[in-house]
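Ticket #4471: structure export looks truncated?
Reporter: QA, pipeline team
Priority: medium

Steps to reproduce: submit the single chain below to the structure queue and open the exported record.
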Amino acid sequence: MTSAARPTWAPAKGSEDQGGSKMFGPRMGVSSKDLPSNKVLKTRAEGQDDAVEVANRDLKRELLERETKHYKNKPDLLAAKQLKIQALEHTIEVPGRVDDEFGATRELLAAREQDEDFDFDGEDAKAAAGGRRWAEEEGGASAAGAAVDGSESESDDSDDSDDDDDDEAALLAELEKIKRERAEERERKQREDESEALESRREEVMRGNPLLAAEGGGGDFNVARRWDDDVVFRNQTRNEPKRQKRFINDTIRSDFHRRFLDKYMK
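Actual output as written to the record:
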């Protein structure tokens, strides 16, 4: 007896023997894919930047060191970037000190990052004042140490201050040069835009006026001829009578059957 026609669940029983008196119960087997997994919450191990390691790290100092290393590897930095490098180096050498003397430089760099065409007018004096104040403080500290070290230390400190003044003057000259080049580039671009706008408007006016276009030779108002105007066998069937389509409900007497016989049976 085949079992293909029997239902998949308990069949209706008509007697004691029909269906075999089978007992059905819940399945006791469990699939391996149904078993629980990952029952323990994983946490960061040692060396994976856990909370204690992050709390003990000096993140600000690491950031300043990476920025200083990055800017030193760029030989074509602007003068303002060089000022930022000096500020970062000074911050690393004196940790925990608020760098008030570099406040003007940071404002200048922040404005430049927001706008590439930032005008440095008025900010050069602030940067120069901050540099002078830093040089004066450094010079004062050197003078205090020179009272103990002697006349040789005083001469070295004066040479260092002169070098700082020379570097500051070179940076300011570079800033002035950059500002002048940007102004010239802005004026040149403005002149080019004005000339292009004037030329485009002139061309638009020429196209809009047919008289000016005809004088300038820019337009042709003649109707173009068709490609078959001068052919020999054009419009040969113009005067021939047109065949009217008709419907005949007979496969033997239809027009298609007649054409078929004329073509293949003659």
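Status: closed, not a bug. The export was complete when the record was re-opened. Leaving a note from the reviewer for reference: The CA atoms of residues 66 and 88 lie 10 Å apart.
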